[in-house]
Every structure is written in C-alpha cells, then in structure tokens.
Design goal:
With about 280 residues, this protein is of the alpha/beta class. The protein is built from six helices and 14 strands.
Length: about 280
C-alpha cells in the first residue's frame, strides 16, 4: 500500500468570541489558526485531518460557527469527533444547521485514501467520562464489517481504560467494562490505531496490540509531573500520522510553550463531581 499522511489534532476548545469564558485558559482560536498555517507549509500535503473532540469549550452553536470559520482556511477533509465539552445539539446546529435528532450520538465512518476511519461518540451528556451505548456497539460491529479488507483508524474523544482493573480516575477514560468490550470487538480487525484526546497530554500506549494515540491538544497541557492535583500549564501540539504497510507512525509538532501555570483543579472534587453525575444517571 502507498503511504498516507494525515493530521491529528484534539481538544481545540474553540470559544465564542462574543462571550467571556473564565474556563478558557488560552487563545484557542489563534492557536488553531497557527496550527492550520503550519499544516499548509508541509512539503507533503496530508490527505485528511482528524479532530478528536472537545471541538469547543462551551458547546454552544456560535462556538461551532467560529470553529467552521477558522477551519475554512484548509481544503483538507476534516473528520470530527465530539467530546465532553461539546454538546450534540450545539454541534449539529452550529456545524450542519440541523434542527432535528439533536440528541443522537455522532457516530460516522469514511474511507479516505484507502483508510477506513470510524468515529465513535463517547460522550455521556452531563458527565466528564466516556461511554459507549449498546446501540453504538452494534453500529460499530456493522461498520467494522462494511470494509473488512481495509486498514482502520478508530477516532474517539475518550481513550479506553488501559489497566486490568477499573481505574480510580475513571472520568479520564471510556467506562472500564465497555473498554473491555471494545477490545474484544476490535480484536483481529486490522485496527492501525485509536486516536483520542481528553487528558491534555501526549501519550502513546499499546492496548491489546492496538496503538492508542492521545494528543495534548491546542488548549492547555496537563502537568503529568504532579499527581495530587490537576495542574494545567501552557502547552499545545498536534500530530502528523503516517500509515505504511508496516503500521502507524505518529510524529509530534509541539508549539512554543513556557509551561506557565494556567489553572489548578482539586482531583478529589473532580472525582466527587463525576461520581455524583453517575449516581444521578443511574436513578
């Protein structure tokens, strides 16, 4: 097979310029504009862009209109996933002008340059962590069968849980049991990799034989040198993926950064918030 180059960006967190947002810690519109400018200088033009969720910071339709305006600078196909900062109604209205079926998961698939890209909506309304509903697993099984001969990329905002037991910080991942179910479904399916975001730091893993690529994104970086708090620092990057017959390579392009502290979260409070949302959803 011929080599295919693509771009992985994530956690764009684009804001509505008409609204002051205290939870937007950097000029994400300027960062995204700069990333697109850098992509345009590449000697080898990529075939497509993957944007793996948290496209906006507030999930309102006007923020998606701002995103569309910025992304109009590229003529590359863009494959969007949505994340926990996004909302399905805002996304559908702002990106597509859609006014019906606004609560439906945004699951979709595309074949580009011989690569079968399958995108899962792992968002759980009003929760931080990720999930995959039974109907989505059924859809994914059909999608995997639809082009069984082609190599595949899976795009999902939340990465699967990597360990052998449920993690204490379960809001960072797809729910543990569903992660295990996903691993079983993807086994032997020629999956080149899973492209994700959400945790705001670059991380590469091999999960049941599948590379899981998590990007830092374009908003802020998690300081992984600290564990008792969630410390956000200045930082952004995007990835250049290359697919060969031997598999997937991901090279990172970091933007200039100082690691200046932008914000802190108490992890205990974050855990309480997620567990309260899970308890409410189970009633």
């Amino acid at each position: 097979m011929a080599e295919t180059t693509f771009i992985h960006m994530t956690d764009l967190h684009v804001g509505n310029p008409a609204v002051v947002d205290d939870h937007l810690f950097s000029d994400t519109s300027a960062t995204l504009t700069r990333v697109l400018e850098l992509i345009a200088t590449m000697d080898e033009k990529p075939k497509f862009i993957v944007a793996s969720g948290d496209l906006t910071n507030r999930g309102d339709a006007d923020s998606y209109r701002q995103l569309k305006s910025i992304m109009s600078a590229t003529d590359l196909p863009v494959i969007y996933a949505i994340g926990n900062h996004d909302t399905r109604p805002g996304f559908y209205e702002g990106m597509f002008g859609r006014s019906s079926d606004l609560d439906m998961p945004y699951d979709h698939e595309h074949v580009i340059d011989g690569i079968h890209v399958i995108t899962l909506d792992t968002t759980t309304p009003d929760q931080i962590g990720g999930s995959i509903e039974p109907d989505q697993f059924a859809w994914l099984a059909r999608a995997l069968d639809s082009h069984s001969e082609l190599p595949k990329l899976i795009v999902a905002h939340h990465a699967p849980a990597l360990g052998d037991t449920p993690p204490w910080d379960h809001w960072r991942t797809i729910e543990f049991g569903q992660s295990q179910q996903l691993a079983t479904l993807l086994k032997g399916r020629n999956v080149l990799g899973i492209l994700s975001g959400h945790i705001h730091h670059d991380r590469f893993s091999i999960w049941h034989g599948i590379p899981v690529i998590v990007g830092m994104g374009q908003h802020a970086a998690t300081d992984i040198l600290t564990t008792d708090i969630l410390r956000m620092v200045e930082g952004a990057s995007f990835g250049i993926g290359t697919i060969r017959s031997s598999g997937l390579t991901m090279a990172l392009v970091p933007l200039p950064q100082t690691r200046r502290e932008l914000n802190r979260y108490d992890l205990a409070l974050l855990r309480q918030k997620q567990e309260a949302a899970l308890a409410e959803a189970s009633k």
